[in-house]
Amino acid sequence: MATVNGVVGTQTITGKTVTDGRHPAVIRTMEFASGAGIIRAGEIIALSTAGKAVSFDPAASDSKKTPVGVCIQDIDTAKDTAGSVAVHGTVMKKSLTVKGTEASSADIAALEANTPVWVY
Q1: Structure pTM?
Q2: What's the pLDDT tens digit per position in 6-43?
Q3: Residue ranges of the domains in the chain?
Q4: Which InterPro entries match (predicted)?
């Protein structure tokens, strides 16, 4: 009997971890607005005036100015109509974005003031 000491296969997992284990996350499936492009994991989420999940916009003058949670998976709104959003629990500061850029301290303060989501 021959012995083979080799690599049978490899797997690389890419992605961003958003939730933090300090307090269990409550994840809610939300309907996303179509045509909003790809919303990446870590994006702070708000609701459109139609009640669908969109990227949080601190400069908006409507409901998009109020965060409701954090997207925990990439959502391609051209293909997907629903996605997972952390609406309670702890998330990682380094993962948070607003419109694809790093979330500011004001963005994080708005998230924590409007949701039971805490940032570490």
Answers
A1: 0.86
A2: 556 655 555 678 998 889 999 999 999 999 899 999 99
A3: 19-119
A4: Head_decoration_D (IPR004195)
User: CA-CA distance, 73 to 81, in Å (whole number)?
Assistant: 13
CA distances from 69 to 11, 19, 41, 66, 94 (A): 31, 11, 11, 10, 16
The neighbour count for residue 103, using CB atoms within 10 Å, is 25
Q: How far apart are CA 82 and CA 30, in angstroms?
A: 5
CATH class of 19-119: mainly beta
CB proximity list for 14: less than 8 A, separation 6 or greater? none
Beta pairing class for 75-76 and 38-39: antiparallel
The residue among 21, 25, 23 whose CA lies nearest residue 70 is 25
Which phi and psi (to 5°) does residue 97 adopt? -135, 160
CA distance 52 to 33: 5
